[in-house]
Here is the input.
Amino acid sequence: MRSAVLRALIYFDIFNYPLTASEITQFASLKITSLTQVEEALQELAEALLIFQFGEFYSLKNDIVWVERRKKGNTNAAAILPKALKRSKLIYKFPFVRSVNISGSLSKNYFDETTDFDFFIITAPNRIWITRMLLTLYKKIFLLNRRKYFCINYYISTEDLIIPDRNIFSAIEIITLKNQAGEDLYRQFIETNNWVDAYFPNFTPDYTHLDDPKRRFIKRQVEKILSGKAGDKIDNLCYAITLRFLKRKYRHLRTEEFNLNLRTKKQVSKHHPQGFQFKVLKAYEEKCRDFEQHHQYKLL
Here is the structure.
């Protein structure tokens, strides 16, 4: 139990983000039947000076500044969330968009001057690249390419809902998604990726119903026009254009890095050119190892 608690705290310490006991339960790798178990483990770890408590928050760092930072970020997130919902509804109006989900920092209830509105989109089959092209053009033309409140970095289609990167980073990103539109598809996505249970057995999906925006007349008509073989050809063209552009722009990346960080296939578009996932996974391994060495404590 103590190791499970520590691993949760170590992971979020990468982001200087203290956790509450209930959050630690959610992100623990061990099945927990009561919050009391976690609170007892936290008390033992605090008494041993392995962790530090600041009110309801627990941290590996003995510095309240990170708690204050978190509180401010949480307040910002609550204030900005209605704007994110409006952006989600806007995205849902685009042709072939079937589910819109907030990801990234905001999905974890944190927002500051360094973070963006990140979105995870599920589209109709074989229409990712038309959708992506339309949304990209909208951002470049109408938002002057500003990404602060309009950053869509992951598209998948209803044809293939599985996330192949089975690791703690991807699992956390999946269980913290905030579904904004397309609830039924979100349910299907979570059920398809039930491998996250191996990482977080205490995860309970939040299926709080949101009234899905209706598919407007224009959206229905555009989808009708771009259906069938004509739509297939246009989607293939958008895919080819985007792939050529990405390979030219990120030609400095090795093939393996490109395929992992910029997964570009007919049924998926992943845009993480900085390799953030792998930086986090490396940092997590290093922090676990450093913790064990510094405290002479073996993490299970």
